[in-house]
Amino acid sequence: MTGFGWGVRNLGRHPVRTALSLAGIAVAAAMLLDMVMLSGGIEKSFSDLLLARGYHIRITPKGTFPFDTEAAIPGATGVVRALRAEPGVAAAGAVLGTSVYGRAEDSLVTLVGYGVQPEAQGIYVVTGGSDLAPGDTLGVLLSEPAARLLGAGVGDTVVLAGRLDPQIAQARTDRRLTVRGTVRWIYDARGQASVGTVLPVMQRLDGTAADRASFLLVKAADDTAIEALTTRLRERFPDLAVNSVADLVVEAKRRLVYFTQLSYVLGGMSLVVAVLLVGTLLTITVNERLGEIATLRAIGVGRGTIVRQVLAEGLALTVVGGGVGILLGLGTAEYLDAILTSFPGLPQAFSFFVPRANTLAVAAVVLLLTGSLAGLYPAWLASKAPIAATLRAEAT
Amino acid sequence: MAALLQEPAPGATEIALERGLAERLGLEVGDTVRLGVAADSLRQIAIVAAVYEPRPDPAELSRLGRRLRMHLPDLAALLDAPDRVDRFGIGLVPGVDADSAAAVVNRYAIGFRAHPSAAIASESSQTFKVVSRFHRAIGFITIVASAVFLLCIMLLKVEERRMDAAVMRFVGVRRRTIFGALVLEAALVSVVGSVLGAGLAWLAGAATNTYYRRYFDTELIFSLITPRIVLFSVCLSLLLGLAAGAVAAWRLVRTPPLVLWGRA
Amino acid sequence: MSLPPVLVARDLRKDYPMNGETVHALRGVSLVVQPGEYVAIAGPSGSGKSTLLQLIGGIDVPSGGSVELLGTRLDSLGDRELTRLRLTRLGFVFQRFHLLPVLTARENIELPMAEAGVPAPPRRTRALELLEYVGLRQRERHRATQLSGGEMQRVAIARALANRPAILLADEPTGELDAATGREILDLFRRVNHDGTTLLVVTHDERLAAEAGRVVHMLDGCIVADGSRPA
Which residues from A are below 8 Å from C117, CB to CB? Predict the structure, then answer.
């Protein structure tokens, strides 16, 4: 019978007390896991989103980030050509984001319009039908919500309108397009109705007909040289903002800094609760068993064994409670994520709570260490109990 | 785009800068700058006529950029879009319902929509409604954890006094008396604890406000402890404390005294 | 050639504070115990019997005097060595048994052997032998809480014998037992002593004192009589 074995068995002495302690530790562990997931989730999710199609760099008007403002990059086609010629660039494409109108029966509905270069695009995945061919000025791609709104499917014709003239109550620019396919726009919010055409078509619909783009996408030829490429492009295009995925993640974290900080505060508080619970329980049980401990010391059981037994009890509580807590935490994370991902305008594919093996491992290790530390004081108490005085007190 | 000029020039327009922008650029009232829509076309000369403090707006918290204000015709001329705006603001005469007025406009409008200000406020508050829901969810989880913790501690503390309870029963003290004493003790601990907790919350709130006001350079209030919130917390703590105390006390008083004494 | 004494206690004194006053539990007690003796230390409550036993067993430190156990002065040993001595050369039996309730009878007996580093197979064998010796082989798998008072004390005695101690120290071993059960314990002690273990038993039970070959009477922290009972 090892110190650990009988330490674990001691937990069975008071089943109700142990069950409540385990419940408390489980809730604390669940909260800890959720906060660990939250602290790394924003970065992981956003990073995955940005790298979904393998594009490592975004280029936007100076002082802006993608989809942040209505500012645009002039001479987009020329810039893309220069990028494609740049050593280290595997692919480059332009995206224009704007508002367009679609005719749904007798009314006009507002849609988000994307002008893309299909040969180098990083913002959608085809889910039905086919992609646009480069230069296809008669085709359009629809998101599922857009398809429902317009009542159109693959092969149907839709009418998209650009700037509207309120005085003549008509669209200034109007285009009949054939639906080539349905797509999932990677950065669309839940339920967003979006359409996509080749870049020149959307530029015309936009009303200015200027060669402009909201941002450019760049794919590096060498995954390990992304930062070096970013630096070179910054020097090459000083009037544009060149950001790697890492830069954009930093910005996203800055904007969502509150959640990161909250995760540290709540995670810390969970650990404090766990320490208090385990520490209090063990201290009280040690005090209750001082006579037993004194007897063990009297018959020759060393302080080390006593300490190991107490620590083992704490560890057992933490392991079992923590195990339940991790399962509970995965469930509460889903619930909390469902709340946070209802932020308006947030890409549907974005998550705040991302379960990963290393996240679970971090939470488990931190919890185990905490549970062990919590047992230190009661273990010390147990080892220091004066044998004779305790036996005398027990006898009275 | 703006560039600082050393001396005022004729034909200059007037602009007003946000305080943060003025500080960042090191500009003061009376300074002259050059404006343009591109870095290589800073053709409009402007004089800083005023520096203003923007109204604290939560929706603007994460905005990086700073704003300047200029007269509409000047901006239209700068953008080369003489007859274009992004939105109109409409003030209604007293007694006119905003929703009805918006409906009338929308019936005839093409290319734009009218929204009552309240609707826009509600829509733009969605972000904060989500944050509130998140806070409530965290609060609920915390309450559950606290309740479990409280019950556990109460059970432990009451069990520590099993011998005392046994002796009291031996000498004839009624179960009811022991139960009442323990529940009262639990209630007192809960109330005192929650008042201390409210104090701690006030301190944490003050620290939160100080930190985030500095971080976001704003006068917004991030954490607010109201009397209603304190009252709710104290009442909830009391309720949980009474429940935990009652459960722990009931377990103690229903145990035969000899068992409590350890002889049975 | 006679063997050296197993215990030599010289002028032992023990004072400890209680409620602001100093209690003189022992006032200069000297005692020599030879190998194989069965010594009963008798006296009324508060006479210092248990205090004397605790000093002899090295679980308390005297305020004055010395204890030499099996040729070793206890005041020359550190805590670790004292613990080791208690584990391997002494056996302790207490009034309240103090078995671990979560362990079975066999596991309670194995506990000191596990602490001494005895491997599991011989440990188990020895534990079963001892259970047989105390007449509780059939209770091997019962937890301590499932045993009667007498059974618990017999398991406690078996535990005390686990590492083949030179001396068995017992503090009021029949204090919590009824007469019949106490009788069983007396019989067991007689056997243990007959099999070669030196016994030092603190008791105010006259029957138990009568069983011993030598009775040391204490009163107010002093030995007032020390006599061998005629064989």
Answer: none
